[in-house]
Write a structure and sequence with these properties.
With 394 residues, this protein is α/β, with parallel strands linked by helices. The chain has ten helices and 17 strands. Strands 16-15-14-13-7-12-11-8-17 form a nine-stranded mixed beta sheet, covered by helices on one side. A six-stranded parallel beta sheet has the order 3-2-1-4-5-6, with helices on both faces. The radius of gyration is 21 Å and the shape is globular.
């Protein structure tokens, strides 16, 4: 198998991309921190510069945190319209509640800025359609959706296997993203538990793209789906001494009939769960084929389980993948790769594409607008399936 795990392209011209952040919460700080670590990358081929930040209601001390760590910031505003009108901003990272995606994402795109936006790229299918229309009006812009887990080295290696046909015929696939953030019933309610702000998709809108990124990039098309959606904790504290209803789905299991690029159909089971006992933040991928099979979970980020079959005994082997991201870093290959590294690699993928007009390679590219649209069709079909207890066409 060719070693494509790390980039080795010489970049004589290091382009600077000035960018702004809308939404200074958890993920806004994660992306900013990735840029602060840019010297960790050896050949990213681009240099991002944080020039502007925006939050309509920033937490106390949050603006000071950004300004103290990023002296390049020259604009601080509570109005996103001011940021996207700033000529010193080439690109925008936007991390806001789902119900704001339609307005903000479309406005960013129509202002002529490149966009990296958080999933699900619209609170529902109609909102995503509006965002897609804005992008089609401005096709020269790089518009991408955040999803970092496929940048783990083991998953990059699985991409290589997929591209080389190493699996043979796909028999079955399982993907998912599980955590236990809502296991505690005394946790106060937040916007992700309310349909108006999070959307009817519930956990699918919040976590679903993570489980869809690899399958969609591999060319798997969900043709139909039977969904089982669960509301497990019916109400939560409102933070004011009362209780309020939880309106959104906590867990989702989707059994899809998927079709690969060769036209072969196979079962694909996708799980997203906010209430998964024993799970902190577990992303997993399993592919079973006639020639090879793989299993990977972020519970052990170094370990890739691999089975190849050429007749005779079947034996799973464990491979330590080490630190071999798509974009070469100063960390030696013998060391382990983690969540913050995947954020750094995804951020590098976005800015590389802004600077060079194309991804380093298909597996090292962020989620595309078309892939977000496909996820919305899948999740909308899943809602129909749950409501009618039927298998629905995607």
């Amino acid at each position: 198998m060719p070693d494509l795990a790390r980039s080795s392209l010489p970049f004589q011209d290091m382009k600077t991309v000035r960018f702004g952040i809308i939404g200074l919460g958890l993920m806004g700080r994660e992306i900013a921190s990735a840029v602060a670590r840019w010297c960790h990358l050896e050949d990213a081929g681009v240099q991002p510069e944080l020039t502007a930040i925006c939050d309509s209601s920033p937490p106390p001390g949050r603006v000071d945190w950004f300004k103290s760590h990023f002296p390049s910031i020259r604009q601080v505003t509570t109005d996103y319209r001011e940021l996207i009108a700033n000529p010193e901003v080439d690109a925008v990272y936007c991390a806001v509640p789902h119900f704001l995606h339609e307005e903000l994402y479309a406005a960013v795109i129509r202002s002529g800025k490149h966009l990296l936006g958080e999933k699900p790229f619209g609170v529902d299918l109609a909102a995503n359609t509006t965002i897609m229309a804005a992008w089609r009006e401005n096709p020269s812009l790089i518009v991408r959706c955040s999803s970092e887990f496929p940048f783990f080295p083991a998953v990059q290696r699985i991409f290589q296997m997929m591209e080389s046909g190493a699996f043979g015929r796909i028999i079955e696939a399982n993907t998912g993203f599980l955590h236990s953030s809502d296991l505690d019933p005394t946790k106060p309610i937040n916007w992700k538990r309310l349909s108006r702000t999070n959307g009817e998709y519930g956990v699918m809108g919040d976590l679903g793209m993570h489980a869809c990124h690899f399958p969609f990039r591999a060319g798997w098309m969900p043709r139909n789906v039977r969904a089982v959606l669960s509301k497990i904790i019916p109400q939560r504290p409102d933070g004011k001494g009362g209780m309020v209803a939880c309106e959104t789905w906590d867990n989702a299991t989707l059994l899809c009939e998927a079709e690969d690029r060769a036209g072969t159909r196979f079962p694909w089971t996708l799980k997203t769960q906010r209430i998964a006992p024993g799970q902190k933040n577990t992303w997993y991928l399993e592919i079973y084929g006639t020639k090879a099979s793989v299993r990977f979970s972020t519970k052990n980020p170094k370990r890739l389980e691999l089975l190849t079959f050429n007749g005779g005994e079947q034996s799973w082997q464990e491979i330590d993948t080490g630190y071999t991201g798509a974009f070469k870093a100063i960390t030696g290959e013998i060391f382990e790769f983690g969540f913050s590294d995947s954020i750094l690699q995804m951020t590098a993928a976005f800015f590389f594409e802004v600077a060079h007009g194309q991804p380093l390679r298909p597996s090292a590219g962020c989620v595309t607008p078309e892939e977000t649209a496909l996820s919305h069709r899948l999740f909308t079909a899943a809602l129909r399936s749950q409501a009618a207890a039927t298998t629905e066409v995607v």
